[in-house]
């Protein structure tokens, strides 16, 4: 118990040292959002600054990308959901301000969505075993000792943060991220690869259903069978499925084989250090939906793996995973989330997989 309390204190101190928030009387200011403002003012600021993430709810003006809800009744519904999420954020952040939590929440593009709506559209990974197909079990190099910290972004193996938009395609972004890292390692060139090809062309036989979810492991099998994947510029992302238009002559990367990481954090650490960025399936919840910064430590309430991310590294002080998400740079820590390492938070180590190109 003493060790656990000491660890929590260390993580809390680390989380506060990383944050860019200002605490006052138990309330937290996060960027442009002063959470002590009335909800209606916050909602107007949200509409002016962020916009809703669902195209079914909004109409865009010409150039400035600001939006309005299509109907007054819809706006009222969204305002109530927004207000409920703001209460939830403030309640949690009061714990962060007092040192009871290691991470804080904030207003983002999902704040006018209920968790059920968010999960249906942004956290709908197909619940399939990663090892279906021709995957092998990853065996670490003989006598290998993982370093105390790794960050593949510093090596130039990680592309910019991408935004999946209103499409449940996190599985595709996780898969391309792992292939991009491997390709950069092998060739010395970092190329952004096409998630849209995976959405359009990778079928149900690989466990993939376009914007309705998919499977990173099945995606590696698809790229292997198809003998390649195009680049993002050649096959750009469009946030919805279209007829497959894959052109084999434009292939930029291939997959020779792919591997399942044994379901424990030591194996994930070894794989991350020795192989590069790793695709990981995780369980996410309402706190993940509204995460803004700090060391994330709570995926309670969710029982199934419903999202896929990219593990790009880890550190030992504090003991955390460095994780790239696909919700754009306005979510989390400029598109990333720092997750507590050592307790398999969100089951991050339970379904990890990576390719070789």
From TrEMBL:
Gene3D superfamilies from the UniProt entry: Cysteine proteinases (3.90.70.10)
UniProt keyword Ribosomal protein present: no
SMART domains per record: Inhibitor_I29, Pept_C1
Identification of the protein by name: Cathepsin L
Keyword annotations: Hydrolase, Protease, Signal, Thiol protease
CDD domains with a match to the protein in the record: Peptidase_C1A (cd02248)
InterPro entries: Papain-like_cys_pep_sf, Peptidase_C1A, Peptidase_C1A_C, Peptidase_C1A_papain-like, Prot_inhib_I29
Family from the record: Belongs to the peptidase C1 family.
GO molecular function: cysteine-type peptidase activity
Keyword Signal: yes
Superkingdom field: Eukaryota
GO BP terms in the entry: proteolysis
Domain Peptidase C1A papain C-terminal: 146-356
Domain Cathepsin propeptide inhibitor, first and last residues per copy: 43-118
SUPFAM superfamilies listed in its UniProt record: Cysteine proteinases (SSF54001)
Signal peptide range: 1-17
Protein source organism: Dreissena polymorpha (Zebra mussel)
């Amino acid at each position: 118990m003493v060790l656990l309390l000491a660890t929590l204190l260390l993580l809390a101190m680390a989380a506060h040292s990383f944050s860019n928030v200002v605490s006052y009387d138990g309330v937290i200011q996060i960027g442009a959002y002063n959470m002590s403002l009335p909800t209606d003012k916050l909602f107007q600021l949200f509409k002016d600054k962020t916009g809703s993430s669902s195209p079914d709810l909004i109409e865009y003006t010409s150039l400035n990308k600001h939006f309005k809800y299509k109907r007054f009744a819809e706006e009222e519904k969204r305002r109530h959901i927004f207000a409920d999420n703001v209460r939830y954020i403030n309640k949690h952040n009061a714990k962060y301000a007092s040192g009871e939590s290691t991470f804080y929440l904030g207003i983002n593009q999902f704040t006018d969505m209920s968790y059920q709506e968010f999960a249906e559209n942004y956290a709908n990974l197909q619940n399939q075993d990663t090892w279906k197909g021709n995957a092998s079990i990853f065996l670490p190099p003989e006598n290998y000792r993982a370093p105390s910290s790794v960050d593949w972004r510093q090596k130039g193996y990680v592309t910019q943060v991408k935004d999946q938009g209103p499409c449940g395609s996190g599985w595709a972004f996780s898969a391309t991220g792992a292939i991009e890292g491997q390709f950069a390692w092998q060739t010395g060139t970092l190329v952004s690869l096409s998630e849209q090809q995976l959405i359009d062309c990778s079928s149900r036989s690989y466990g993939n259903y376009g914007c309705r979810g998919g499977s990173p492991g099945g995606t590696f099998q698809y790229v292997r069978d198809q003998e390649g994947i195009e680049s993002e510029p050649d096959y750009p992302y469009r946030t919805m499925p279209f007829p497959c238009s894959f052109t084999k002559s434009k292939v930029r990367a291939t997959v020779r084989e792919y591997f399942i990481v044994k379901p424990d954090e030591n194996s994930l650490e070894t794989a991350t250090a020795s192989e590069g960025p790793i695709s990981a399936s995780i369980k996410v919840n309402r706190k993940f939906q509204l995460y803004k910064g700090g060391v994330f430590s709570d995926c309670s309430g969710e029982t199934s793996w419903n999202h896929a991310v990219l593990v790009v590294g880890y550190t030992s002080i504090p003991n955390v995973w460095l994780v790239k998400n696909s919700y754009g740079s306005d979510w989390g820590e400029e598109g990333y989330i720092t997750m507590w390492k050592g307790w398999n938070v969100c089951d991050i180590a339970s379904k990890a997989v990576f390719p070789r190109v």
